[in-house]
Please model this.
Amino acid sequence: MRVGVIGTGYVGLVASVCFADAGNELTCVDSNPEKLNKLKDKKLPFYEPGLNDLFQRNFARMAFTGSIAEAVQKSDLVFIAVGTPEMPDGSADMTATFHVLKEICKSATKKKYVVLKSTVPIGTAKECEAFCRDHASAEIEIVNNVVSMYSSFFIFLHP
Ligand SMILES: NC(=O)c1ccc[n+]([C@@H]2O[C@H](COP(=O)([O-])OP(=O)(O)OC[C@H]3O[C@@H](n4cnc5c(N)ncnc54)[C@H](O)[C@@H]3O)[C@@H](O)[C@H]2O)c1
Model:
């Protein structure tokens, strides 16, 4: 399957490597050019025991880009794994999530499945569905994929 992952942080990159290891073709997007350059250079931006071996082994199935549109065009399934930091009032800052969703809506020319992997408040999937109805010309189906307690690739591969 062709999979897009937006946000190559602890959650998005571990998921990407594991999806690639399962034989999928990945397009990984990040807005941080330094992180992208490292990844294109076959270097991980953080350490997790064992992850580097898996990354090196599956590198050929992973593309890295700053373009959400490119990932949407190339993928059937798009994961959103950007940060949702806590605001001073305790709520989640959903700015990055909705920015990404807007870009997905703009670039989708046929049906896409969008998977929310970031930690988001209850009700976000419904909010995203309504947002997509207003902003996308193609059908967008929203799926929730709550992240595991931590991002270990071992837990990911052996749940
Ligand atoms: N790290 C964990 O162990 C963990 C555990 C549970 C839940 N989560 C949740 O998962 C989500 C991601 O967490 P993380 O730790 O991977 O965050 P992170 O900050 O490590 O990664 C987020 C990535 O998204 C990128 N990004 C931000 N805005 C972007 C945009 N507009 N377009 C493209 N890329 C963009 C950032 O550059 C960064 O690389 C958060 O909602 C977090 O709460 C994380």
